[in-house]
Fold these 2 entries.
Entry 1:
Amino acid sequence: MNIEQQIKAVVRDVQDFPKAGIVFKDITPILRDPKLCDAIADAYVQRLNGIKIDEVAAIESRGFLFGMMIAHKLAVPFVPIRKKGKLPCKTVQQSYNLEYGEAIIEVHEDGIEAGKNLLIHDDLLATGGTVEAAAKLVEKLGAKVAAISFLVELDFLNGRDKLISHSPHIISLANYQ
Ligand code: AMP
């Protein structure tokens, strides 16, 4: 099985979570398979070959899982992007729209070095609003979005249309049509 087939074999569809009408992609079974986790991290490194990555920024909380593994494999700094109110030092913030209302993510002001090439990582691309906000944060701090990566992409929501202006390199290991 290739990496996409291996991921799809273990990701679980959970109907109506966290609310009616949503089919939630549960990635937690992947975490029970250390060999698969390692193969996933290696697959990212392979797909990033030729793209300069100086730092990896990932979004709380499921983005941290493989974001940290990728940073470790690339031997570059890891940058946690968190929901408002969790980071203890001075932050920069970015708001974005949810289906109902608004959310804010933030990063330490000194957490990203200006001029660096960032990989932004999250577990899943749905409408793209979350990672678009993360891309704006990276750019606010004077860094560049060199690539964006996901485990899972829900193609039918066209989230990548929001991201392509930030980076042409959008990598998903498992696509659902
Ligand atoms: P979006 O901003 O619409 O691209 O949503 C992406 C964020 O919401 C990611 O951090 C995902 O973890 C979460 N998310 C959205 N839809 C799903 C889904 N169907 N299954 C699992 N997580 C989801």
Note: The mean pLDDT is 97.
Entry 2:
Amino acid sequence: MAILPIRKEGDPVLRQKAQPVPKVTKRIVKLLQDMEETMYAADGVGLAAPQVGVSERLIVVDVGDGPIHLVNPVLVAAEGSVVDVEGCLSIPGVVGYVERAQKVVVDGLDMKGRPRRVEAEDWLARALQHEIDHLDGILFIDKATGITKQEDGADST
Ligand code: ZN
């Protein structure tokens, strides 16, 4: 595995709509593994492929219960609403409050190309919504209120 450089706000790849992955190939599996390692090395709780410069629909999240890798994730259900603090590895030192669904269902494929459904609440739901936004070129600062600079603190995705 390898730690990849994380693209920062201002890099055009973060504003592109990422392409669907037609097939879970060895290249995709390696990329997901590298994204996982990069996320842990950066002390993050989530990472999307555009954040490592790849405009493809891949995410990894881990809010403390182990890593979840998803290919072509789609938000298929969402309910409730929570406003909480959020940060992003691509926008270091900045946090803000973002309204997200409290509970979501996300469908995608796992690393073996099998269908995978993730039912999530609270922080995991938030991380999934943040990462799926990245795949559509959306950054949390587009939605956040009360944006402030912070040395360290909020978990970043
Ligand atoms: Zn992010």
Note: The pocket of zinc ion is lined by residues 88-90, 130, 134, 157 (CB under 6 Å).
